[in-house]
Amino acid sequence: MFSILSDRRFRHLFGAQIVALLGTGLASVALGLLAYDLAGDQAGMVLGAVFTIKMVAYVTIAPVAGAFADRINRCRLLVALDLIRAGVAVALPFVSEIWQVYVLIFLLQAASAGFTPTFQATIPDILPEEDRYTRGLALSRLAYDLENIISPTLAALVLMVLSYNALFVGTMAGFLASAMLIVSVMIPSPKPTAPRGVYDRTTLGARIFFATPRLRGLMGLNLAVSAAGAMVLVNSVVLVRADLALSETALAWTMFAFGLGSMVAAFLLPRLLDRVADRPVMMTGAGAMVAALLLLSLTTALNGLSWAMLLITWAIMGLGYSAVLTPSGRLLRRSAHAEDRPAVFAAQFALSHACWLITYPLAGWLMARFGLQPALLVLAALATLGMVMALRLWPVGDPVEVEHTHDNLPADHPHLQGGGHRHSHALVIDGDHPRWATHF
Predict the structure, then answer these.
(1) Which of 145, 231, 249, 402 is close enough to 427 for a disulfide, judged by CB 3.0 to 4.6 Å?
(2) Separation in Å, CA 211 to CA 73, 215, 279, 393
């Protein structure tokens, strides 16, 4: 897995991802504590609203950013967005009203909506070989796991001597360090695509997404991930601080358990994906998340909520979470030409977060209105629905190469040179292949 770090460009981008995510992780802990200070037992509702604002920014801005990403120098774009995020982090310690948190979070997440899919679409350009890209994805997933492990640990150490406002300073430092690492390497920018109208450009990624069976299945898995993940991200602070009456440090260790499970999966997945197809791995991960929700519901009903069981189920949740998300980049890379990847990655970013837009406020509302048991059962049912959707929409087998006929193209068309009207290659939705079919 670590051999790809010999590539200087990937090594610097991976470092930028790590420091930015560490800063984001510190902010996540600080936001939970800030919400608790401002709203007390209703902190889950505040965090649900914060995450909803985050999702609105992602869903509305990411497709536009992806549509025009090939018209802007990637390095300058990424650095500018990092600087915006650092500026917002500086302002967060000074808020005194809940509405101020909402405004700043929207600005922060609007910048992230442009940054993240552009960053993700850059990695397959740097690592074009699938085996190296798979290991790059695993390391990228590991970076997210390091956020869930190292950030809470750092937060716990800082909180021993300083207030949680100091964590926002760490967030600013992470974004600034990310910008410096990005500037230090040459990042490839895609060749501009053929001129398209605004509507065509902004909907390209979604049209490719919904025309490709494996990506339609990924949408169902996105729903499963968001339903399970929302329970962890929205309600952990309420479970630990209010229900269990534990300390701020205990909250950090609870998130550590989720990150630990995810990290274990990230280490195991590269070799596993060399031998097992993406579909069964991702379906198993979704099943593990559903099982974790039901396990916590059952044990809580029998013996009440305990911190030990919460740690165990959050670790299982992290394992399944990573097993679904890590291979998803392979599906996106396989399903689009290089020039269309920014749009497809942006579509995945927006569509997956549209699921979070539903589950974040739902998780907070269910917990505040009905309590733990109904929240767990409803979210488990929603995750199961996502699994069933994926199983039906993503066919077993899912061939990379598809034999097909082109009656829609003239014999001298460049696409047919050397292959004839009937030929076989990796089928990707584009102008010559507008739908998933064997006859055009």
Answers:
(1) 402
(2) 29, 8, 18, 11
